[in-house]
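Checked the freezer inventory, then went back to the computational side. Two predictions to log before the end of the day. The first one is the construct we discussed on Monday; recording sequence and tokens without edits.
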Amino acid sequence: MKKLLSLLLVFILALTTAMFAACAQNAEDGGAQNGGAQNGGAQNGGTQIDANTDPDTIVSDQMTETEWTAAFAADSFKNYTMLGVMSQSTEQEVYSSEMTLKYVETDSSTILHTLLKDTFGTEVDTGEGYYEKTASTIYQYSQIDGAWIKREALYLPTEDTDMYRNIISGEFGKLQYDNAAKAYTATNYALSWGEGSNAEEFSLNSVTVKFANKKLAYIEYVVPTQSNVEQGSDNAPQESTMTVSLKYYDYGTTQVTLPQASSVDEGGNGQADLQMSEAEWLEAFSAANLSNFVVDGEMRSEVTVEIDGVATPVSTTGTILQKYDISDDHDYRYLYQNTSTAEGTQEVEAYTIKENGVTTIYGKNGDGTWSTSTYEGDFISLDAFYDFAELYSEAEYDSATGNYVISDYAPAGSDGPMFNSIYLRFDNSGKCVFVQLVIEDGLISSGTAGDMTITYNLTYGTASITLPEIQ
């Protein structure tokens, strides 16, 4: 099973997943239709800029600050085409993602057409999607069983791609015009990403920007990264670079014709609502969505363990309750776990608060009082939910149950178990409401084998946590 690249920096995540993965339907959603798109072209010194134009041949206009500001203004992007390419390679893997976005904005609606080609080693996935934004609703057109289905969407993919322009829209004067490169360039470029306490400082290897006819024509970022692609027993990360480039053209001439939808789902209980685009999947497992929710679950297992040299069957049942209440000014979490075997019952209950990177754990003593200790990291972690974001391409939709099914999954770089099946289900608002992990006659932990099922039910906006008093 392939392991998607896991990049270390928040900025890197924004420059990969949020853009390219968020902007088209998964290949399983259907084949290609032209959609009536036409290419016009932008002139640059007598050269026609289109999808095939080599960016190195584009000679950038030299801009005043007023022209720079106008080129990045929203009014400049009411009709255009963008070709985005992200690529990264290591000794073990080559990963690239190519996305073409056509955008047309009129007085009454906004229409987009997206095409995605995702390459990981020798595997290639393609996808296509259309979007329509009216005065009151955003719709997504997805191909299901060969037919186009129109249904409500959470947002337009340009909400993600616009970040690329916004990064440098106000950076006039920080990039200098390079006569040799015929572009605005900078190396070892310092950038602040985020706001307030969430702000992070990053350094990019290089930035390149080009303009044609006083409009934005090309952006390129070269970004230092690490990947967790498996490399033998130590699974050591590799240092590498990632290149993200965006070419803009066909200003004022881009055309998009929406496909004829065979059915329209207005957000009812139809099965189509339970299917997720990659953008919606990523949003479901984003920090924004996983900020206030409750996990109510249970665990059952039948395992064989070695007790005094004898293989002994052990049946275990348990309940799990987790609460997460995370906002800009606080991070509260709660865990209660009850586990029962024939030998008795064990309970674990804890609260945590995280401040300035340090987690304080409130643990219950044997006499029922509470005491605190500190922990480096997240004692009650969200990592398992964040990791699901990487599994969209591994999931297959079961229309009979409304579940996505992931088969034979083992977390890369982990000594944990192989899950025979993982089931995930989403509600009509795009939130994950059900998770089930199943091991059948497999290794659960070192020296322990058998069957195990863990089931989580998730509800959102209901977590309210009050930290216990310390006596």
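The second is the one RB wanted added to the comparison set:
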Amino acid sequence: MKRNLIILLTAGILAFLESPLSAQSKYEESIKYWEDGPLTLADFSRRTVPASNGVISDLWYGWETISDRNKIGNLIYMTPRVRTFMDKLNSWVVISEFDKQQQLYLQTTFDMAEMVGRQYQKDLFTAEEPYKVQEFYRRTLSSSVDSFQQESRYGRDSSVVAYYAAKIQEQLAEEPEAPEPPKMIQFKTGLALGVFMGYTCNYLLTGLSERNGPLHFFNFGFDIPFSQRIFLTWDMGLTSLYNLDCTGISKNGYDWLNGQSTEAASITFDLGYRVIDKPYFAIEPFIGAGVLGVSQTLPRDMWNNGEPVSSSLNGLRVESGLTCDYKIRRHYFPMENSYDEIILRFKLYGAYSNMPAVLGPTWSINMGIAFGYDGWITSWRK
């Protein structure tokens, strides 16, 4: 019994895994792309009588938009490619009426869809609103095909069919099948947001560092780019200090204890401007202000109704320095109106902190490294 159950479960799992593959295969068999070659009788389902309006064939066609990946240096950008296809399941012919003239009529309709699709693709490169461009060309194609159908009496007028066929072939020869994309870096930036995390070393020239060495912070924060050059950065640093020499530090009636865990935190807002912005790197001087704090949790008997209470030293902090971003990778997606940079950030700056309770004015030299991501919403630059 158990063996049979295992066999049934295995068969069910295999059928489940096989089903999507089978559906995908069926879909691919039901579609023919323009580049696959001329239409043949095998591409159509067959009927024995015309439609109620006397039409003896019907071609269902459309466009599929895919993205091609391109790479120049560290920039990866996607360009749209329009593929013209026909739906074999819904396209049909009356078998007794299918001849070379009717085949040419259907092929010319398919070629017309390819021709308008190439024009559509070319305009997609610079479209600020791709869906409006798509709708315009769908209407353009619908109007052109409708005129062709009426003038040729749905393929019955051989002279009209021959005229349209020759005309479309000339246009296809003049219109490249794969238009050369423009320089994809030509865009305007709009709303943006970035995130980063990393490490910063703060070496205080007076106060804590004289007795304990530098402060090592885990940093994280956000970039708010106002453009590709102007950045507002919110930066928070956290660290725990052990075996700290707290001799002489007293606050809120509590003398700090040596060797007890002590927390340090910094929060700053920096405003920077990229004076150099190249494909692989950017250099950004900045100025900023914020708070630097050091705290130690009070003994349990000094807590407030069982809630931990800390003795804290806080002071205003101002800083200025230089940031250098190495751009590991950049991406531009015209169809999604987005551009981003994956960066490795190096930071060197000086800071002045004033914690008057005990430490007094404190200067520091600081160095940091972080991994980050900045992204923009874009529009085409005309």
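For RB: The longest strand covers residues 310-333. The two ends are 72 Å apart (CA to CA). Let me know if you want it refolded.
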